[in-house]
Amino acid sequence: GYQILQPITFLKEGLVIVLYHHERYDGKGYPKGLKGKQIPFPARLFTIIDAYDAMTTKRCYRDKLSPEEAIKEITRQKDKQFDPSLVDLLIPHFMTLKQDGYLDNL
């Protein structure tokens, strides 16, 4: 995706997300094996949101998880896949969205 979008100049700011959203906080991701704060902030943030969306959306190969199950899995992956400080910041927002009914149709 990065190589496809790179020539589009108005997308330049978002390319960091495209390039690094498969990096893991523990350094076991790709493409560069970046660890912790080496991963640009936008990519660390997007990775959590993308994972939540992926887990709570039905796929052809599996059923969707409930928001509570997804939150439990994301919390379990703190310090491994996800930035723990960002998980701690985002989880209350996911819970608020769920309580307000915004996540009911996912």
TrEMBL record:
Report the source organism: Aerophobetes bacterium
The record's listing under InterPro entries reads: Cyclic_di-GMP/3'3'-cGAMP_PDE (IPR052020), HD/PDEase_dom (IPR003607), HD_GYP_dom (IPR037522)
Provide the protein name: HD domain-containing protein
**Where is the HD-GYP domain positioned along the sequence?**
1-106
Q: Which Pfam families does this UniProt record tie to the protein?
A: HD_5 (PF13487)
Q: Give the organism's phylogenetic lineage.
A: Bacteria, Candidatus Aerophobota
Instruction: Return the PANTHER family for the record.
Output: CYCLIC DI-GMP PHOSPHODIESTERASE TM_0186 (PTHR45228:SF1), CYCLIC DI-GMP PHOSPHODIESTERASE TM_0186-RELATED (PTHR45228)
